[in-house]
Design a protein that fits this description.
alpha+beta, four-stranded antiparallel beta sheet, 35% strand
Length: 98
């Protein structure tokens, strides 16, 4: 299994727009994907008011490719994110056994 950690920094003046997109569009979209084992979403804290995160566990690379395409190691960018995201960070890890 693969752990996929996606972190986004929204433009400060677009924080509320991104929060709505994140909870109303991105999270439901990811939750519907075949091969997704789990997803945990993180909302901003006072010391990082523009940062959002999503920690996903995927069954395998094939499931990730079905979701994000052949270039699955790059952030999957939804068209509604245009102009509201300042930075995207993406990391992958093998899931540690029990």
């Amino acid at each position: 299994m693969i752990v996929r950690i996606f972190r986004v920094v929204a433009h400060a003046d677009k924080r509320d727009v991104f929060a709505e997109f994140f909870t109303g569009t991105a999270l439901p979209l990811v939750r519907r994907q075949p091969g997704l084992i789990s997803v945990t979403a993180g909302l901003p804290m006072p010391d990082t008011p523009d940062e959002f995160s999503m920690v996903m566990v995927w069954r395998d690379v094939e499931a990730l490719k079905a979701f994000a395409g052949e270039d699955w190691q790059r952030p999957h960018v939804h068209p509604d994110e245009a102009g509201i995201v300042k930075e995207r960070h993406l990391h992958h890890y093998a899931l540690a056994a029990g």
